[in-house]
Specification:
Layout (H helix, E strand, L loop, with lengths): L2 E5 L2 E5 L1 H7 L8 E2 L6 E2 L20 E3 L4 H10 L10 E2 L7 E3 L3 H11 L7 E6 L30 E6 L4 E2 L13 H8 L1 H9 L6 E2 L3 E2 L11 H19 L4 E8 L17 E5 L10 H6 L4 H21 L14 H10 L8 H11 L7 E7 L2 E6 L2 E5 L5 H8 L4 E6 H4 L6 H9 L5 E4 L5 H8 L5 E5 L3 H6 L5 E7 L4 E4 L4 E6 H9 L6 E5 L11 H10 L8
Parallel strand pairs: 15-18, 18-19, 19-20, 20-21, 21-24
Antiparallel strand pairs: 1-2, 3-4, 5-7, 6-7, 8-9, 8-13, 9-12, 10-11, 13-14, 15-16, 16-17, 21-22, 22-23
Length: 551
């Protein structure tokens, strides 16, 4: 036990030298245990730092009479009944008051009264085998990939752990590090001495540690599925960069909030096991620290310095604006997932495959990006007027950037302006063979629509003015485009005619002919690169009828 100094409801763990040096005006009640170097001190009030005389009574420590009121007041301040600890006056003696051997129990009572149980779950993502937990698992070819250094057949997976303290008290079974004085004492004596005297001493500490827990038990505590999605995605993002420098994550630990959306733990090499993918299989983790203690300090520093140099060198040679920023249609982590799913040696179970596909796949909210085409070139349109050519006039170059999105709307402006069988339409048919294309512009008859749908266009976007045509088109292949001004009035005939019909009125009319997907163009802000009219959009969504499934 260290020195325990307490003032009101604040307790500090310090050495006796610290008391003498930093608390020169402290009354100390000294109580010796079997080990003369272990003693208990209570901070009662300001005053002279004294060490009371030892009592001649067995197992008693003496408190000067003038100090008893301060001791009693201290006990009251921390809600401890002084009579419990036999603060007895020595009859017929001027020596003072005695505290019996039960006083050392006060230390436990004070310490444990401040403990709060803060258990929670965290997730560990495993890429290699937890061979120390599962007996003989390395020999089971239905679980472990043969000749793989312990890699699981299922690939990386998430294991939920119940967050336990590293050590608990053998007497109270409570966590040691939840004691508010734990770290103060550790800092005072140093980590190594603290470990040897306290944590390695079974009289004071029992090793405990985290334990894995079935997800069924924590279903009502956390969002299990979202936690898995977040952990797997974070793992794969980190691994995708490590793969660039031939490093492999064996396992990594994350702390995630109950919604499974926010990481609140640090993410660094101290939280994971990392191995080089080479013949030497150099390890960049703290397992050597666990094995060798402080004697391995220099070795672990050398390992982490080497690890840092590897990453620094990579990022200096591969600037973001020269690499990832120019990779328009994928991310590093999606490529890594694709490689995992195509690994024929693995047998990834269906539930994990679904998680990986969700992470790799579409955005949580579908974004329909638009490319306007005029005379076979991609152009910028501002408020219905062709403004300028972009992407060097090459639609292929524009598509390379847009193809990161799952759905792309291509508008045939020549067709919208009245031309037929345009060059744009032929290009759109070609692109629809490779991409998920929505097509709009110049679709004035059912023949036009059927021609595009047969060319693998997913949906046709038609103007809201022709209800007769709208009724003839299969609704699962249709989007109705509504152009409006700042007053939410519907514009038709190339946006040149104001119907003075409110968009909500128009939407309700479209619902009557079974339309369930619409597109809204805000003409006043279209193409100005000044953002969207947020307040106008909010107001529309408040009024939007429930029959409309997507906008």
């Amino acid at each position: 036990m260290p020195w325990l100094l307490a003032s009101k409801r604040v307790i500090h763990l310090v050495t006796f030298e610290t008391v003498v040096k930093n608390y020169p005006t402290v009354y100390i009640i000294l109580h010796e245990f079997a080990d003369p170097n272990i003693c208990l001190a209570l901070l009662c009030r300001k005053g002279a730092c004294i060490e009371p005389k030892k009592s001649t009574h067995q197992n008693k420590s003496l408190i000067a009479a003038e100090h008893v009121s301060h001791v009693t007041r201290f006990f009251e301040q921390i809600n401890i009944n002084p009579s419990t600890y036999h603060l007895d006056r020595v009859t017929g003696s001027s020596e003072g008051y005695l505290v019996n051997t039960d006083l050392y129990l006060l230390a436990d009572a004070i310490v444990e009264s401040y403990l709060t149980k803060t258990t929670n779950t965290h997730c560990t993502l495993w890429n290699g085998t937890d061979k120390n937990s599962y007996y003989d698992i390395l020999e089971n070819e239905n679980i472990v990939l043969p000749n793989s250094n312990g890699e699981y057949l299922c690939g990386p997976y998430v294991r939920l752990d119940w967050r336990n303290p590293n050590h608990i008290s053998p007497k109270t079974r409570k966590s040691l590090n939840e004691n508010p004085y734990y770290y103060i004492y550790e800092q005072a004596v140093g980590k190594e001495e603290f470990f040897n005297k306290i944590l390695a001493n079974k009289s004071y500490a029992i090793p405990f540690g985290d334990k894995n827990i079935t997800e069924d038990l924590v279903t009502h505590l956390i969002d299990v599925k979202q936690t898995k999605l977040s952990a797997l995605k974070m793992f794969m993002i980190i691994q995708s960069y490590f793969s660039q420098v031939n490093l492999l994550i064996k396992d990594v630990c994350f702390m995630v909030d109950k919604n499974g959306e926010k990481f609140w733990s640090e993410v660094n090499q101290d939280c994971m096991r990392i191995t080089a993918i080479d013949s030497n299989q150099n390890k960049f983790d703290k397992d050597i620290w666990r094995a060798g203690g402080s004697a391995s300090r220099e070795q672990i520093l050398q390992k982490w310095n080497a690890f840092n140099r590897i990453l620094i060198e990579y990022f200096m040679k591969n600037k973001f604006h020269q690499t990832e920023l120019l990779t328009y249609n994928s991310y590093f982590y999606t490529d890594e997932i694709e490689k995992l799913l195509k690994n024929t040696q693995l047998r990834i179970p269906t539930n994990l495959q679904e998680l990986w596909l969700t992470i790799r796949g579409k955005n949580p909210r579908s974004v329909l990006v638009t490319m306007d085409m005029f005379n076979g070139q991609p152009v910028l349109v501002k408020s219905s007027q062709v403004c300028e050519v972009h992407s060097d006039g090459e639609y292929g170059q524009a598509m390379e950037k847009l193809s990161i999105f799952p759905d792309i709307l291509i508008v045939d402006l020549n067709g919208a302006f009245g031309e037929t069988d345009t060059k744009n339409r032929q290009i759109i048919k070609k692109l629809a063979q490779k991409h998920h294309i929505y097509m709009g512009g110049g679709l004035r008859s059912l023949t036009d629509v059927e021609d595009m749908l047969k060319s693998s266009v997913r949906r046709c976007v038609v103007a809201s003015a022709d209800d007769v045509l709208i009724t003839k088109i299969p609704k699962e292949r249709l989007v109705v485009e509504i152009s409006i001004n700042e007053q939410n009035e519907v514009l038709i005939h190339g946006r040149q005619t104001n119907t003075h019909v409110n968009i909500i009125t128009k939407i309700n009319q479209l619902i009557q002919i079974d339309v369930n997907i619409i597109s809204i163009t805000f003409v006043q802000s279209e193409g100005h690169l000044s953002g969207i009219p947020r307040q106008q959009i909010r107001n529309l969504f408040i009024q939007n009828p429930q029959n409309i499934e997507r906008i």
